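S.,

As promised, the 809 run. Input:
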Amino acid sequence: DTNISRFKREFMQVSVIGVGEFGVVFQCVNRLDGCIYAIKKSKKPVAGSSFEKRALNEVWAHAVLGKHDNVVRYYSAWAEDDHMLIQNEFCDGGSLHARIQEHCLGESELKILLMHVIEGLRYIHSNDLVHMDIKPENIFSTMNPTAHKTQPQVSKDDDGMDSVYEELRSSENLVTYKIGDLGHVTSVNEPYVEEGDCRYLSKEILQEDYSNLFKADIFSLGITLFEVAGGGPLPKNGPEWHKLRNGEVPAIPALSKDFNELIAQMMHPEPNERPSSMSIYSHPILSAVDSK
Ligand SMILES: Cn1cc(CCO)c2c3c(c(-c4ccccc4Cl)cc21)C(=O)NC3=O
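Predicted complex:
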């Protein structure tokens, strides 16, 4: 009886974990494999509309961006009774936005966040894709109760970087951050840019300058770090919005000079002056994890 919904047939709804103009997100258990998934159910977009393009973009992006530890994993998508559903990995740690409601992040947690998100961003960028909506609501976390050295043991006498990444991924690091919501993903080669949240939007994108989309993601990540470190709440427009995009970025007292400089560099008014995801990945600040 395929006329009853696949959603009801294959899944048991546990709870609602998100509601927005986009639709509703459920935490579900798959009746067959017993695993937990996050399923977003949204109104089926009008054929040919920009919403349909965005919905297809999301699924296409997931299809291209297979499996990466720092990108939320996609399992399936389907349409039924005038709705679209996408079944993704459930991240049990909540969104970064939810995590910073009580307290902002300290430097060591920020380093782990930056390490994971820049790895995910590097992976997305290496496929000539850009995310275009990096922000705390779209960064999810999973707790690794079974966190252990899953990577092959690197010999400690390497250039030191491998053992550093070993440190960051090893068991004391109980959280893994993952980039989610690929609804704004587009290709750098034939960009179809739909602006993300204006609080995290770089000035050049607002001015429809799409000449360096990779650096727009870097700006959004920089201002995200600024906010979760305690620099928020972020303006949506007006003089304060422009100040943050003209290089007037207040230092976060709790952070080191180096970290404040990196955030300011990522938020540089000139896209070309911002570091690439690759250069941040090998930035000294991420290798200064105090050794055991
Ligand atoms: C609001 N909300 C809360 C969560 C749980 C975080 O612990 C969540 C998730 C997702 C999504 C999501 C975002 C965009 C598209 C599809 C999905 Cl399922 C939304 C989520 C998703 O893809 N995976 C999630 O865990």
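The chain is about 35% helix and 20% strand. The first helix runs from residue 6 to 10.

- D.
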